[in-house]
Each structure stands twice: as structure tokens, then as C-alpha cells.
UniProtKB/TrEMBL annotation:
CDD domains linked to this entry: CBS_pair_bac_euk
Tree of life domain: Bacteria
Name the UniProt record assigns to this protein: CBS domain-containing protein
One Pfam family hit: CBS
CBS domain location: 8-67, 76-132
Alphabetical list of InterPro entries matching this protein: CBS_dom, CBS_dom_sf, CBSX3_CBS_dom, Diverse_CBS-Domain
SUPFAM superfamilies named among the record's database cross-references: CBS-domain pair (SSF54631)
Entry keyword set: CBS domain
């Protein structure tokens, strides 16, 4: 199973934010949209960072509530790991585990085309395991 399969099911909508937006706006957007991360985009819609709930909580813990008035650029993760549509779920799971992150933007030809969360990956993997289990049961019944 590939990232393309996940995007086909969930869609390719990505919520983005400008690096000059405040951390307060980012937190409000995350809450209102019920999501865990925003892709930070710069000129020409290029991905320049990602800001997650975790980034906001860490910044609050380090700097206090004053951080809410600073820009997203001050707290975002700048080294964004991305994936492509042809990456497998296994490869993506390994990246997320090794990097200890939960959201991966999907990029093709330097263009943001989606985002995959750990929840999306787990859901896809569970569906795949269920299909395999059903296939094995059917095979055993007919043998």
C-alpha cells in the first residue's frame, strides 16, 4: 500500500499557515480544524516548515504565554521530512518512528499535494491487516 492510496481515501486538502502568523492564530486554527499540524508555506506556496501541537506546547513550556504573540516562524520545525505518493506505508511508518514525528507533508515536484498523519497510517495498516486476515480465512475455508 502506498501514500497515494491514503490520499485517495482521505483527500489531498492541507491546511497551511503563513510564517508571519502568530502562534495564537496557529493554535486557534488547529483547534477549529481538529488537526494536529499546519504546514508553513512561504513564497509560491513552498513548504518551509511545519508547526504542530507539540511545537506549541514546547514553546509555551519554555517561554510562557508570551510565545502566543510571536510568529509561527519562531517555533516551527524547519527541517521538514516529506514523502511522495509512491512511498509505501512501511517506509512512512519507519520515517515517523525514526524521526519521532506524527505528520508528513506529501510533496511531488516541489508542490505540496497532501499530508499524512500517524492516524492515517495506522488506519490504512489496520485495513490492510483485516483484508489479509479475511483472505486467509477464505483460503482456509476453501482448502
Amino acid at each position: 500500500m502506498t501514500v497515494k492510496t491514503i490520499l485517495a481515501r482521505k483527500g489531498s486538502s492541507v491546511v497551511t499557515i503563513d510564517p508571519t502568523a502568530t502562534v495564537a492564530i496557529a493554535a486557534k486554527t488547529l483547534t477549529e480544524r481538529g488537526i494536529g499540524a499546519l504546514v508553513v508555506t512561504g513564497a509560491e506556496g513552498r513548504t518551509i516548515g511545519i508547526v504542530s501541537e507539540r511545537d506549541i506546547v514546547r514553546a509555551l513550556g519554555q517561554r510562557g504565554v508570551a510565545v502566543l504573540d510571536t510568529s509561527v516562524a519562531d517555533i516551527m520545525t524547519r527541517r521538514v521530512v516529506t514523502c511522495g505518493q509512491q512511498d509505501t506505508i512501511g517506509e512512512l511508518m519507519q520515517q515517523m518512528t525514526d524521526g519521532k514525528f506524527r505528520h508528513v507533508p506529501v510533496v511531488e515536484q516541489d508542490r505540496l499535494i497532501g499530508i499524512v498523519s500517524i492516524g492515517d497510517v495506522v488506519k490504512s495498516r489496520l485495513e490492510q491487516m483485516e483484508q489479509e486476515s479475511n483472505a486467509l480465512r477464505d483460503y482456509i475455508r476453501t482448502a
